[in-house]
Fold these 3 entries.
Entry 1:
Amino acid sequence: MNPYLHPRDEILRLMERIYRYRMTTTSGGNLSIREPNGDVWITPARVDKGALRREDIVLVRADGSVEGTRKPSSELPLHQAIYAARPDVRGIVHAHPVALVAFSMVRAVPDTRLFHQSWHVCGAGGFAAYELPGSAALGTTTAARFKKGFNCVILENHGIVTAGPDLQEAFRRFETFEFTGKTIIKAHLLGRPVHYLTDAELALAHQREPLPEPTLPATEAALPTSEEKEVRHRLCEFVRRAYRQRLFISTQGSYSARVDPSSFLITPYQIDRGVIQPEDLVLVRDGQVPAGSEPSRAAAAHHAIYQAHPHIGSIINAYPVNATAFSVTGAMVDTRTIPESYVVVRRPAMAPYGLQFDDPKALAAMLSPMQPTVILENDGVLVTGSDVLEVFDRLEVIESTAEAFINSRAVGELSPMSDEVIRELDRVFLGIK
């Protein structure tokens, strides 16, 4: 979090992201920040969320007085009640993202044990019974759930509220909770049982450091070469693009690229993927990292893959919602659907949960030029390629294929390409006789 960013600007930026990615409507949703002195900055009532301006943000003083050109959100009592119940909370997000609204309509809560990262970021979700929007009763009922320790609470027939020690953390929880809900819905559309992680499986991802080797000596972590700078620039462009395309969310997704035969750059741990900068990327050289840096927890797996496959120049661990639905059901993405899917993605493998943490070399051994993609059980997909562009294209194709596969279930029986067509594609595009 930028300590010099004004609350007005922080609220404005995050509301713009929420609205842009259709996680709320023009009239729905509100954000707030509580300052240490008790003052609360909050979005205004009855103002288009798609055209919100800096001066629209309202300040509600601790004594109840209001400053600004607008009236505060009608959900101010909800925010105030949560702040009163949880002294540790400094930021709140309330909105109406479609997947979580669907859960609210059936009185259900997404199980965040679907992914280790969802459980780590959100914890268990809570549920608040229906009360009139904007009422003190809604604030009382919802605050009671937050007082129990929940940080993400579904509002019956209404939407979602998340809270955190700052607004950025509340947003991370909001986005991650919505992603979890979307994945569960997509998984159910596949018609297969959904696998949730056990306590032991949840702990596995955080039992080991991503790269336990010694720290890179200071003399070797000198100013980057022009080649490294170019890779940093290009990799950052594609990380942010992956976020814009909803292939990543702010808390999930790792992207790396080779700099030279012995080193690669990778996304850092717990840095917002939507706003990542070149200087945020972590250099890994011979399995070592500069002092003070913390690479993605996928770094050990990426290191093993680069060591085993000199032809691989870039790797993505991603959680696009449709492909990820396959990872939590054990279903396989059938790429024999359209020529592009088969030629670009080939035939994905399926890796059991935890292989990327327990045995990165075994995961690397599953990859080959003819099998560049692996679906990771309850952990999205791992995609490899010769460079940053190829691996990104491959990720987009597997996600669009997965979405088409899921959508096809609503219109008829899947009709894969014939063996004769596959042999022709192998011969013409892949050089297989």
Entry 2:
Amino acid sequence: MKINWYPGHMKKTKELLKKNLKLIDIVFELLDARIPISSKNPEIDKIIGNKPRIVILNKADLSNKDINTKWIEYFNSKNIPIVLTNAANNKGIDKIIKKSNEIMKDRIEALRKKGIKNKPIRSMIVGIPNVGKSTLINALAGKKRAKTGNKPGVTKGKQWIKLRGNLELLDTPGILWPKFDDERVGLNLAFTGAIKDEIIDTETLALRLIERLIEISPEKLENRYNVEISDKTGLQVLDDIAVKRGCIVSGGEVDYTRVAHLILDEFRKGIIGKITLEEPNQIEGTF
């Protein structure tokens, strides 16, 4: 599957990030807890440089708890502050505020000595589309301030938003890189909905997801769909799921479009189970 998606506003966002970074005290790098490697934009480190940052693994409620622990240990070993969140349910939000104030403690004290009190900590949140940025912003603000949507790229433009805990936020749209040299990265992004379904073959995508789940979590497929996995190909399992769920058209043929949407939707909502597609031991090179 070839995936190439780089809307024009993403290029503008990259330029916006560079332009406004001098206004920022701390960067929130938002990743998807299910795919921390694939959801990291490799250009972000170059853009933010040595700015203080907090890595936020969002949608942690959808990911494997044991692997979440491995990711916490990994980032701690790199001395990178990390917080796990489920922004939709406001979980982990207070930890972000607390950690931000801890990291900015020296700056706050230096300003206090100059007679400057309660100056907001200015932050920027960066992340790929559909990783939950708008939901996180609304949770940090304590009310609905940013537009949200279930399609990637719904947040556009520049907004300064007042947050809780003496924080201000420069919101930016999510950005992806122009192409995916690693097909596995592109697939992971597509599996989780970071790439619009309209530009990919959803039937093939669902099949590839089934093949991946057979590899890492076969028991979850068996439990959710009451199918036998052993010694079967991904297509055979997909066909079995279609039969179990009544995704059949006249003549007894499988309705692949219908079963594909069902499987992708249930994976993205965590209905199949709490599944993480990437672990720290899969990191290649720098991260």
Entry 3:
Amino acid sequence: MSPLDSCLLDRIRLRWVPLLLLVGLSGCTNGEYYAQLFDGQLDLLRRREPVAAIVADPARDPELRRRLAMAEQARAFASRELGLPDNRSYRLYAQLERPFVVWNLFAAPELSLAPLTHCFPVAGCVAYRGYYAQGAARGAAALLQQDGWDTYVAGIEAYSTLGWFDDPLLSSMLRWDDERLAALIFHELAHQQFYLADDTAFNESYASFVEREGLRQWRAARGLAPTDQRGERQREQFTALILASRARLERLYASPVADGRKRAAKAAEFARLRRDYRQLRDGPWQGDGRYDAWIYAPLNNAKLLPFGLYDQWLPAFAALFRQVWGDWPAFYARVRALGNLSPAARAQALRILAANPAASAAVKNSTAFTSGGER
């Protein structure tokens, strides 16, 4: 089982790209690690079969056929109505013999929230390593722990190869309901539409906006009412708790106090986080304990790393979408233009959009933004 409920895990699932094996590994020294990437991706490719063939086969499991038929409809909608890539991705299916496709390993120092990063061609630098076997991820975590690192291993239901392969629907993805499955298809195809190396918050906020707006339009096209926002509000409130705790820890670690006092204060901060969560759960949430398993499992710095990446720039991309009057091709063009800016200029443009959408004409009319600017 996932350490988080599926509703939150889909918010923090971090994409990992095994195609890196195929584009050069100069300077890499961990041969065993890259060998398991190659073997795992090859096994996944071998398991693929066309969704249409499964849906048409009366001998296959009826529920599987129903789920895949729904996914086919969402996949067609993604390209037809949302302007997302029209290719073979998510028109294939792979049955796995495990609950997750990969396990991601996060690591941070005992008294720091700076992640241990790993840099690859194409994808750039990311704050995790992916393993196809849970035992391999836990073994790598144990070695880091011996060197004093905080570690966290998270099971991941899906990842994107950014269009380098025809990504299949996975049996692990079918753990989600129909709407979350459709939303995931929109999210992953958004990464194929545009991906900016070395800026995870930009990539995930952009794809999360496409996911949310795509799901809203998908429901409207099927004559369904808007979704209940209670679960989304709870996710946002829980994420806000984690980010507030992380900010307090960052101030603590940057302070001049002795390491022993920092360790004691770190333990006290995690106790405070659990206490704040209980107040939220037993108060406004009326006893809904959907995050109990995560919050009452061991806490450390590495476990806090994934939070916030998927939400940081959501208001900015929502404002950008309104600027172009909901025109998807124009929206993607503006996203690419933002990606062409230098990191500092891009962050400034996003801050303007997020802080005051009504005043975002300052960004819209920026010569650097509309022309692509300079990296």
